């Protein structure tokens, strides 16, 4: 046999085995949470077969059908309900698009292409794919969970949410002018029961007496499987920060004393004013009473004068008249 023919036969058999054996190396596919995954089935239609001659479908590792194209027409009867309305077929690229990807969608998928002949269907192409679902964690954020504790510690926590898969590591970097310290604390994690996404956090207490120079703290999250690192915004600690020094209560004490005195003096001043007003009011009434009494005495005096004028008899009256006449006569004589 011609060696060239033998070589060509081996190549043909290799290609057939690669594509038809279910144990062939699967394609690695990655998709992001809530986005779209492309499940390829790169069939080379070298025979120019019509779609009306082919049966094409995808299924998952549990043999549930995602999509079926039967002799050129979509056939939803065999499609599992959890994939209904979530797929679309790209005819040109022989790719099935799975929309609204969830964590539970990750796993193995297979596409099959059969050539339907009068005597039955013949498998002419098969492709295996492994789908991995990713969700980007939020940027780590450092938050001070409490104020200065007795002027000794700064308590910090760093958190990142809504990511997948579970991250590999979370840590703090403490940088000063002279050194960088790596702090690997215990990473706390929780997983949402519905979305299966992870929330992670880590805590740190910084001893303030040990902070002798400016310190910069950064939180770092190492994710899998991309092996990327997410960095938080820097958190600064200044040993000269006023909040690290003992609080000055002088102003507060002064204000408290002033308020206490004001509260104590105001009622006293009000009482004094009230007493003064009370004293003035009786004085005015006494004066009015005095005026009334004087007026009454005056009237009584007038009455007494009238009452005590002695009544004179006719003889006394005549005597007085005569006396007056004599006196007036004397004046006339003197005048002439």
Automatic annotation (TrEMBL):
Subcellular location, record wording: Cell membrane
Transmembrane segments: 249-272
GO molecular function, one term: receptor ligand activity
Keyword Membrane: yes
Keyword Cell membrane: yes
UniProt record, GO biological process: adaptive immune response; cell surface receptor signaling pathway; cellular response to lipopolysaccharide; negative regulation of T cell proliferation; positive regulation of T cell proliferation; T cell activation; T cell costimulation
Disordered: annotated span: 283-309
GO CC terms, sorted: centriolar satellite; external side of plasma membrane; extracellular exosome
Keywords: Adaptive immunity, Cell membrane, Disulfide bond, Glycoprotein, Immunity, Immunoglobulin domain, Membrane, Receptor, Signal, Transmembrane, Transmembrane helix, Ubl conjugation
Signal peptide segment: 1-26
Stored InterPro entries: CD86_IgV, Ig-like_dom, Ig-like_dom_sf, Ig-like_fold, Ig_V-set, T-cell_Activation_Regulation
Residue ranges of every copy of the Ig-like domain listed in the record: 22-115
Biased composition range(s): Basic and acidic residues: 286-309
Topology in the lipid bilayer: Single-pass type I membrane protein
Source organism superkingdom: Eukaryota
Subunit structure: Homodimer. Interacts with MARCH8. Interacts (via cytoplasmic domain) with PHB1 and PHB2; the interactions increases after priming with CD40. Interacts with CD28.
Functional description taken from the UniProt entry: Receptor involved in the costimulatory signal essential for T-lymphocyte proliferation and interleukin-2 production, by binding CD28 or CTLA-4. May play a critical role in the early events of T-cell activation and costimulation of naive T-cells, such as deciding between immunity and anergy that is made by T-cells within 24 hours after activation. Also involved in the regulation of B cells function, plays a role in regulating the level of IgG(1) produced. Upon CD40 engagement, activates NF-kappa-B signaling pathway via phospholipase C and protein kinase C activation.
Name of the featured protein: T-lymphocyte activation antigen CD86
Recorded name of the encoding gene: CD86
